[in-house]
Amino acid sequence: MIALIHLPSWQSYNARMCQQADEGGTLLIDRAAAAELPREESVREWARDKRAFISSVMEELREERVAAADGIRSLGARAVMFEEFGGRDADPQDAYLGEVETSQIYVGILGRRYGRPLPTRFSATHAEFRHAELRGLRMAVWALDTPDREGPQQAFLEEIRAFHVAPAFVSPADLQRQVSERLRGIAAEDLAPWTKLGCILFRASEVTHERDQIAVTARVQSDDVAHALETLAPDNFGRPGEHRFTWSGRCRQVRVANVRTTTTTARSRLMHLQLEVVEDHRDHLLEVAFDGLSPDDLTDVALRTALFGEPNPLARQHMGFMPEMADPIQPLRDARVPDEIVRALTEVMIVDELVGSGRAARITTFRLGASVGGLRRLEFAWEPPRRFTNERPERRPPLVGQVRL
């Protein structure tokens, strides 16, 4: 049985087709920007209100904990350590997890020992790691380079490496250096997140959105990317085209009103883009419920088929075309994206497809694992759009699978 058919206007159909033609091309990525780190004063300004929770078996790794704290403090952030909590009228485990909740960064250090299991059957370090993931902290984990790790500790490390890179360290000094470098990398991601305009991916140092106006500032390293952005500016012969602009989990249909470029002595370009938000053309060509599957269920089917290669359950009924969706990360495979930026760009591409098409209001969680044999574990959840004003937001169960990337 088919119901809830919704057909868009002819103007919306035309706009959607034009958008697909524009954004279906090869990605143009400012690859050189991946290695660019922010200035020291910018990092310190970013770190000023950041708390990094240090998690490890304390008895085994006392020197390493001090080294990690020194690496954190070298940038101006606050290191949160149990040794400095002081006396509290609270259960120790509640105190640990409470400090995790008020931190922005989790710094895990794994040695040989797993630690004493709590009533939850997890060690304190394991419980803190899981709580940090649940709360959406930025994750940074290191493992002592040792051949004789306890069995539960090795299993814990393998759990971590399903989604996170956990490099080895050989000494406290080595760990201090790596912690400092990792925090600088996190600062760079926060201070200059990746954005997508049409088929151009670049890092923006500032995005200001006010009503129907979006101002973007970006330091562009690639000549090709700078040229492509400049060609989006309107000329004297007609109105500029429309493009999707995706940033920080959001996506809007925009028109480029102006592009201003300042070339610096380092050959990079400081670019200022003025974007105008235009009428939203994110209507679905066909939104249906079929055979007990809601429109949101069909989106899940389409995602599982496109991303994970799962069989389309409607194919046997010759209705497999209904939930079809292009693989949103295929352009990244074609572009051979380097490992250091693949996570950030994958999230941008999924937001661009789901939020940009109107299938989702937002992506609520996102995790992409390290490459193991060319495969990465991808897990994300999304929130459907509100179709009625009195409709409560719905949380879909996360989609989990392996992607080749």
Share of residues in helices = 25-40%
**Could you state the CATH homologous superfamily of the domain at 40-191?**
Toll/interleukin-1 receptor homology (TIR) domain
Radius of gyration from the alpha-carbon trace, in angstroms:
24 Å
Kindly state the mean pLDDT as a whole number?
86
Please mark out the parts with pLDDT under 50 across 5 or more consecutive residues, or reply none. 1-23
Main CATH class of the domain at 40-191: Alpha Beta
**Spatial strand sequence of the major β-sheet:** 2-9-8-12-13-14-11-10
Please give a structural write-up.
The protein is an alpha/beta fold. It is built from eleven helices and 18 strands. Among the domains are: 152 residues, Toll/interleukin-1 receptor homology (TIR) domain (Rossmann fold, 3-Layer(aba) Sandwich), CATH 3.40.50.10140; 119 residues, no CATH class.
Brief sketch in words of this structure:
The protein is of the alpha/beta class and 405 residues long.
Question: Main traits of this protein?
Answer:
8-stranded mixed beta sheet, disordered N terminus, single chain, Rossmann fold, 405 residues, alpha/beta
List the helices and strands and how they pair.
Layout: E1 2-3, H1 10-23, E2 28-29, H2 40-47, E3 51-55, H3 62-73, E4 78-80, H4 92-101, E5 105-110, H5 124-135, E6 138-144, H6 151-161, E7 168-169, H7 172-191, E8 194-197, E9 200-203, E10 206-210, E11 213-220, H8 223-230, E12 242-247, E13 250-263, E14 269-277, E15 289-290, H9 295-308, H10 330-335, H11 339-357, E16 362-368, E17 375-383, E18 399-404
Parallel strand pairs: 2-9, 3-4, 3-5, 5-6, 6-7
Antiparallel strand pairs: 1-15, 8-9, 8-12, 10-11, 11-14, 12-13, 13-14, 16-17, 17-18
